[in-house]
Design brief:
Layout (H helix, E strand, L loop, with lengths): L8 E5 L3 E7 L14 E7 L1 H11 L3 E8 L5 H12 L3 E7 L7 E6 L5 E6 L12 H5 L4 E5 L3 H13 L4 E5 L8 H5 L2 E5 H8 L4 H9 L5 E5 L5 E4 L5 E4 L12 H14 L4 H16 L11 H7 L14
Parallel strand pairs: 1-4, 1-8, 2-6, 4-5, 8-9, 9-10, 10-11
Antiparallel strand pairs: 2-3, 6-7, 11-12, 12-13
Helix pairs in contact: 1-8, 6-7, 8-9, 9-10
């Protein structure tokens, strides 16, 4: 069912990926072979996984970013999946003679993933559509940190218009990265916040980065929850929901999407973090990367008091 016209419209900026996922009993050693127990072909990429989560949770989503040549097969596969999820794709930029990224992902029984990916370097030369086109009726912007080269100017314009810009950080950033200052909210993974700050502690890393950017800062730590700095510069934590994780692929992206949507709906930071934690936990209980993102009713059910909740586990 399409979201109502009153639902927040969120612009997601990223580079879609075609994912081939293999379930394995163990990640093979170098130079060896391993049989997979299951193969799935899905669409992925940080911003696209987040966009799917936003759409399923009740938001309106517009996607922009580069994809490969109109004649190559990966693009067609991804666009069909995006259309099925209700994501607006009119502002995706097709890049002649280039290839849409493809990844191979190994998922072990603990749910942890190991992956390799090919991204055509030419994709970073993309020129996005005009800001007036992309930001009209836009409530929030969610961008992959790796897209700074072609997205920072648009993010700066969004901030000038009073639109929040949430950056999902899944790789180390340089401390001179303009996106650090263009963002209103920076959501790091634990490893990346440490690498970016050059400090081997999540809390100290957040404190150091707070001297470089006025943005809200948080670091997600999987089952250990999320650590963040409040307006007074003090540490707070949002606990993770205890679940039996079978697939962590895309969990951080679902977290970013859910956080952005709840913020755009008017929730405060603490509420948005709790909402995001619930969505990410549910995603981890099922296989399928971002395509395993939950529906709104599931998240609201998990957010109910413990006495009213049903136990969580992998689907039977």
């Amino acid at each position: 069912m399409a979201p109502p016209e009153t639902a927040p419209r969120i612009l997601c900026i990223g580079i879609p990926v075609r994912d081939l996922t293999f379930r394995v009993e163990a990640v093979p050693a170098r130079g060896s072979k391993a049989n997979a127990t299951h193969l799935a072909e899905i669409c992925g990429g940080n911003a696209l996984n987040a966009a799917i989560a936003i759409a399923r949770l009740g938001g309106r989503v517009t996607f922009t970013g580069p994809m490969g040549d109109p004649g190559e097969t990966s693009s067609s596969f991804i666009l069909e999946r995006m259309a099925a999820e209700g994501i607006e794709t009119a502002h995706i930029v097709r890049m002649p003679r280039l290839t849409t990224p493809v990844s191979a992902i190994l998922i072990d029984p603990s749910g942890e993933r190991t992956l390799t990916i090919f991204r055509d370097p030419g994709l970073w030369s993309v020129k996005l559509p005009d800001a007036d086109v992309l930001l009209t009726d836009c409530t929030a912007v969610l961008v992959e940190s790796r897209c700074a080269a072609f997205a920072t100017s648009l993010c700066n314009e969004a901030r000038r218009r009073g639109i929040p810009v949430i950056v999902g950080v899944d790789r180390a950033m340089t401390r001179t990265d303009d996106l650090l200052r263009a963002a209103s909210h920076l959501l790091f993974a634990s490893e990346q916040v440490r690498e970016t700050a050059g400090v081997a502690d999540d809390g100290k890393a957040l404190k150091r980065l707070a001297g470089l950017t006025p943005a809200f800062l948080a670091a997600t730590r999987g089952p250990r929850g999320t650590i963040w700095l409040n307006e007074a510069g003090e540490f707070e934590e949002t606990t993770a929901f205890p679940v039996e994780a079978i697939d962590t692929l895309g969990a951080g992206d679902v977290f970013h999407g859910a956080f952005t949507l709840r913020l755009a709906e008017g929730g405060d930071t603490r509420e948005a973090l709790r909402f995001a934690a619930a969505a990410a936990a549910l995603k981890c209980t099922r296989h399928g990367g971002g395509l395993a993102a939950p529906q709104r009713t599931e998240v609201e059910g998990l957010l109910q008091p413990l006495s009213e909740r049903k136990p969580l586990g992998p689907p039977r």
